[in-house]
Write a structure and sequence with these properties.
The protein is mainly α and 502 residues long. Helices cover 74% and strands 0% of the residues. It is globular and about 65 Å long.
């Protein structure tokens, strides 16, 4: 029987099975989104099963985002060199296998190691998706593809905690928390079979050189930053934690220098050096780290507060995230549909102000819980604050990438998008570490409301800093259809769709 996946040279018309490629890419992206948030509700279950403490839980949640973010740009380069189909299949197989390893982990230490491996596999898998779509779709069809991508990925971000809570509380076949990883097996295997059969073969460009030195510097710098943030609170912030963070800053500076020297020597850097010389893009990176660090960190604290502080089941805690998630979807729809085009950069300034208003409402709602026992508390007691905060977050998420990408040249879009997505993931990992430490510092004394209050103060500081950064961004965003397909050449495979993770 003839292989249904011809090489591009074997056909002159549109590839017959191209819509199956879209399905597989969406499945891969949703698997990533689920694994970024589905574990949030597993804290008490992991503590009962594996003895996971606060630091272990932070590593299980944030470790995935850390290795994902640190490896995204490298994953894009590997796809350029060895072929996106090949790297997609390798990444998907590794992601599915590491999910199985997570499910059978006998200890919290092994689970953390397997989560780090799972994030690395995701970094090899995800950057290939949009490159494969651009290779098989063009013109109006490509626009339709991206129109489908956004809402589906937004839904994936919303259902993560809900699905995780359902699986843990259902305790199907006595698997408990392990089912949140096992769910990837049938999905991953089916996607792997379809991708192997129907994604067309296209050779990579062996002239592309992979900058392993730059990749090593990024991984080391990220690790030196996140390690003390996770461990510092429990260890009393000894000298090594401060030295580690200082070494991280030096590492990032060395990376920027090494990238410039690599380009000057005529070799391919991981990041187009011209990007780092654009002030609007550079401050935009800081803005993304601040915004998503605060967003992901606050979502984690909300889940921990519901489960540990108010004794919600995993399923109820997952549903407790819905007001925030629905608010984010509403804010994103408002911003993406007309507001960003109509008022430009002001949408990025209104969004954090709405978030701050929601945080203020939530603060007073939490104050009103004093004296209430767990049985008297309902998620409706904090719905107004979380929903308003979600609307503000959605307004920013829908528009942020386009305004930062407006500061870069067309031939830099691929590299820029990959860097932005990497910083988003790393920012989320840092947010988990910081907000987890802030919350648990008070929760260990039984003051769960105080822990949430402190987290809201940290978020307010981050949002204020983000608000200041927005005034340095371009006044108009880059059109959506130019954010995904404008780049050609080696950098083009390095971009990945920003995650609507809530």
């Amino acid at each position: 029987m003839r292989d249904p996946s011809p090489t591009p040279d074997e056909t002159t018309g549109p590839y017959r099975w191209r819509w199956l490629i879209l399905v597989v890419m969406i499945v891969a992206e949703i698997m990533d989104l689920l694994d970024a948030s589905i574990v949030n509700v597993a804290g008490p279950a992991l503590e009962d099963s594996l003895g996971a403490g606060s630091v272990g839980l932070q590593w299980v949640i944030g470790g995935y985002a850390l290795t994902l973010g640190a490896g995204l740009v490298l994953g894009g380069r590997l796809g350029d060199r060895y072929g996106r189909r090949r790297m997609f299949l390798i990444g998907l197989a590794a992601f599915t296998t590491s999910s199985l390893l997570c499910a059978i982990a006998p200890s919290i230490e092994s689970l953390i190691a397997f989560r780090l491996l799972q994030g690395t596999a995701g970094a090899m898998l995800l950057p290939q998706g949009l490159g494969l779509l651009r290779e098989n779709f063009s013109g109006p069809e490509l626009t339709k593809v991206f129109a489908v991508f956004g809402p589906v990925l937004g839904l994936g971000g919303i259902i993560g905690p809900v699905l995780g809570g359902f699986l843990i509380e259902g305790d199907f076949f006595g698997l408990g928390w392990r089912s949140v990883f096992l769910i990837n097996l049938p999905i991953g295997i089916a996607a792997l079979i379809v991708a192997a059969k129907f994604v067309p073969k296209k050779a990579g460009d062996r002239t592309v050189r992979v900058d392993m030195t730059g990749a090593a510097l990024i991984v080391a710098s990220c690790a030196l930053l996140v390690l003390p943030l996770n461990q510092g609170q429990e260890n009393g912030w000894p000298l090594w934690t401060w030295l580690s963070m200082a070494a991280s800053a030096i590492g990032f500076a060395l990376f920027a220098l090494q990238q410039r020297r690599t380009a000057a020597a005529g070799r391919d850097p991981l990041v187009t050096p011209g990007l780092l010389r654009k002030p609007a893009f550079t401050v935009g990176l800081g803005g993304i780290a601040l915004f998503f660090g605060g967003l992901i960190g606050t979502q984690l604290v909300l889940t921990l507060f519901l489960q540990i502080g108010r004794h919600f089941t995993a399923g109820a805690a997952g549903l407790g995230n819905l007001p925030l998630a629905v608010g984010t979807a509403v804010g994103g729809a408002i911003s993406g549909a007309f507001l960003a085009d109509k008022i430009g950069r002001k949408v990025l300034q209104i969004g954090p102000l709405v978030q701050l208003a929601g945080a203020a409402v939530l603060w007073f709602e939490l104050d009103g819980l004093d004296g209430l026992d767990a049985a008297s508390f309902s998620i409706w007691d904090i719905v107004p604050g979380t929903a308003v905060a979600g609307i503000g977050a959605g307004m920013v998420i829908a528009a942020l990438f386009s305004f930062i990408l407006a500061a870069v040249d067309d031939d830099e879009i691929g590299s820029a998008s990959g860097v932005l997505s990497a910083v988003q993931a790393i920012g989320g990992s840092i947010g988990v570490a910081v907000f987890g430490s802030v919350f648990f510092a008070r929760a260990e004394t039984g003051d769960f409301t105080g822990g949430f209050h402190r987290a809201l103060i940290v978020q307010a500081c981050l949002l204020t800093a983000f608000l200041a950064i927005t005034f340095l961004l371009p006044e108009k965003g880059r059109p959506d259809d130019e954010q995904h397909g404008a780049a050609t050449g080696p950098a083009a495979g390095s971009d990945t769709k920003q995650h609507l993770t809530v």
